[in-house]
TrEMBL record:
This is CBS domain-containing protein. Residues 11-68, 86-144 form the CBS domain. It comes from Phaeodactylibacter luteus. The keyword S-adenosyl-L-methionine does not apply. Pfam families: CBS.
Length: 152
C-alpha cells in the first residue's frame, strides 16, 4: 500500500445506506444481517450523517435481558427514526484525498470510518480502519523488505 495513493483506491463502495426518515428497525436489520459497523445516512445521494453500531447499541442501552425488554426495544425502534440518533457533524474525505490524510484523521480522532464524498456532497464510498488493515495485509512483502526489517 502506498500512503500517497488516493483513498478511492481502497475505500468500500458497495454501501448499505439509510435515510433520515427510516425507522431504527431498518438499522437493526442491517447490523444483524451484514458485517458492517457503520451505516451512512443519505438524502438521495447526499451524505447527511452516519450511524455506528456503537451509537445504535448505546441507544438500546443493553436491553434484551428478557422477552419484555425485547418488546420494549422493538417499540422504541419503531418509534424512533434514523435522524434521532445519527451523527451529523462528521469528517469527510474527497475521493482524491491521499491515504496519509485519512491516517492522520484516524490518528487524531476516535472514530473508525470516514465517508468519502464528491464535490457535490454525494456519497461515493466509506473508508474504514478495516479497509486500511485489509489492504496492508494483502500488500506483498519483498525479500528486500524482510532483510531490511531484520537489520533493525
Amino acid at each position: 500500500m502506498n500512503i500517497l495513493d488516493p483513498v478511492k483506491s481502497i475505500m468500500t463502495t458497495n454501501l448499505l445506506t439509510v435515510t433520515t426518515g427510516d425507522k431504527l428497525t431498518a438499522v437493526k436489520e442491517i447490523f444483524d444481517n451484514h458485517r458492517v459497523h457503520h451505516i451512512p445516512v443519505v438524502r438521495y445521494k447526499e451524505l447527511v450523517g452516519i450511524i455506528s453500531k456503537t451509537d445504535f447499541l448505546h441507544f438500546l442501552r443493553g436491553f434484551n435481558r428478557n422477552a419484555e425488554d425485547e418488546f420494549v426495544n422493538e417499540a422504541r425502534m419503531r418509534a424512533y427514526k434514523v435522524e434521532d440518533i445519527m451523527t451529523k457533524g462528521i469528517a469527510k474525505l474527497a475521493p482524491e484525498d491521499r491515504i496519509n490524510v485519512a491516517l492522520e484523521i484516524f490518528l487524531e480522532n476516535r472514530f473508525h470510518a470516514i465517508p468519502v464524498v464528491n464535490a457535490a456532497g454525494e456519497l461515493e464510498g466509506l473508508l474504514t480502519t478495516f479497509d486500511i488493515i485489509k489492504t496492508l495485509a494483502q500488500t506483498p512483502v519483498s525479500p528486500e523488505d524482510i532483510l531490511e526489517s531484520r537489520k533493525h
